[in-house]
Amino acid sequence: MDYFFYPSSVAVFGSFKKGAIAYEILRNIVEGGFEGEIIPVNPKGGTVEVAGRTLQIRERLDETVDTAIIAIPAKFVPELMDEIGPLITGAVVISAGFSEVGNEELERELVEKAKKHGIRLIGPNCAGIFGVHGRFFGSFEVRVRPGGLALISQSGAFGGAALAMGNDEGIGFSAFVSYGNASDLNESDFLEYFADDENTKVIALYIEGVRDGRRFLKALRYATARKPVIILKAGKSAGGARAAASHTGSLAGSYEIYRAAFRQAGAIEVEEMEELFDAAKAFEMYSRAGKRVAVITNSGGPGVLATDKLERLGLEMAKLGDETLDKLRSFLPPQCSTRNPIDLIADADYERYRRTIEVVCKDENVDSLLIICVPPIFLPSEEIARAIIEAECDKPVIVNFMAGELVRDGVELLEGRGVKNFPTPERAAKALAWLARG
């Protein structure tokens, strides 16, 4: 499926008036820096200006392209597929108005036309696709920075919200696909594809329901054997299942069956969007971590909250060795607590954090570190961020910088060096729990 996520040419079908879906997709492709050939197509012809470029609108497609993105009224899509079938390899049908509104016959016709020409199909009723490392943004959703997360979403709107939230959370993406009604390619196909994609480190999947449970379980096992798979399942309740059926025409089915399948395959199920991104951030940084955690903080309260959460999640507070304790006592002020959690107190500076991290990291009883910083107004958060970045430590380090504006500069510095921030002690603890089971 490289022709979808790493295409060399693309044709976009639809209206190119400003604000129209096809126009917005075209704008995203051009502004995103796509280096391949871009062909806008509309029977009216003309030109379109987008991102400082003037593109000729073709009245019909008259050359081969890797992928076609189609945003025209649903009733015309099967006929178009027949017309362009010999010229394309893959098609992304944005258009809605198919099985999700009871129009199964039109969707069947679309699939038949695609199969006739050997075309693989994403959609219909979807929000499009991103191949971020191919600088291909074939969707009207917000563009994202390159990274290791491939997001597969049955819902276009959820996918768009997740991309925007991912930007806010400092997530880097390898790809995004909204597959809508899954008339041809579905979640199982994308799981298998991203499992083998070298730019993808972790896969996140939003699903409401699947049609072929056996195929899905096989694909999920294939993917989880190669990289972490995080799943957010909607339609767990009776009401949610009914909503899912009317949304994408999917069968949500018994949640207990899904949950058992996720566990059996070794996938990580999360309960909400926030958790999905926290898990993704953790796995972007590390493949796994042990259960014995050392907490280093400059504030006692958050250290206690982290300890409570870690132990509730089945992790252990590491028992520091005597040599480690002696080294810590040799340079820490006497009012600091060297028990785990290690409380460096409010005036902890660059040197105190860096030396503590390095000493604790060398302790053979410690598998991972959770570093908490609640900076006082007289200490810039970027100083503590620099200490974390520059400390010599070869074990997983999860960071919790708290207090909004006060830590903004420190968080930016961390993220610039690939260190993700978790805004609360509990979220940081949960990140370590996922790594310990991943």
**Helical residue percent band:** 25-40%
Number of domains: 3
Query: Could you say which structural class the secondary elements and strand pairing correspond to?
Result: alpha/beta
> Which descriptor suits the 3D outline?
elongated
Head-to-tail CA distance between termini: 27 Å
Largest beta-sheet details: 7 strands, mixed
How many H/I helical runs? 16
Low-confidence stretches: 247-252
Query: What would you say the CATH architecture of the largest domain is?
Result: 3-Layer(aba) Sandwich
Strand content is 15-25%
Spatial extent as radius of gyration: 25 Å
Total beta strands = 19
Strand order of the largest sheet: 9-8-11-10-12-13-14
CATH superfamily of the largest domain: Succinyl-CoA synthetase domains
Q: Can you identify the CATH class of the largest domain? A: Alpha Beta
Mean pLDDT: 93
CATH topology of the largest domain: Rossmann fold
Enzyme class: ligase
Organism: Thermococcus celericrescens
Keywords: ATP-binding, Ligase, Nucleotide-binding
Pfam family, one: Succ_CoA_lig
Structure notes:
Keywords: ATP-binding, Ligase, Nucleotide-binding. It is an enzyme of class 6 (ligase). By secondary structure, this protein is α/β, with parallel strands linked by helices. It has three domains: 1-122, NAD(P)-binding Rossmann-like Domain (Rossmann fold); 141-285, 3-Layer(aba) Sandwich (Rossmann fold); 288-437, Succinyl-CoA synthetase domains (Rossmann fold, 3-Layer(aba) Sandwich), CATH 3.40.50.261. It has helices spanning 2-5, 21-31, 77-84, 104-116, 156-168, 187-195, 213-224, 238-248, 255-265, 273-285, 300-312, 322-331, 350-361, 381-390, 408-416, 425-437, and strands at residues 9-14, 37-41, 47-50, 53-56, 65-71, 88-93, 120-122, 128-131, 136-139, 146-153, 173-178, 202-207, 229-233, 268-270, 292-297, 316-317, 342-343, 368-373, 397-401. The strands form four sheets. Strands 9-8-11-10-12-13-14 form a seven-stranded mixed sheet, with helices on both faces. A five-stranded parallel sheet has the order 2-1-5-6-7, with helices on both faces. The protein starts with a helix and ends with a helix.
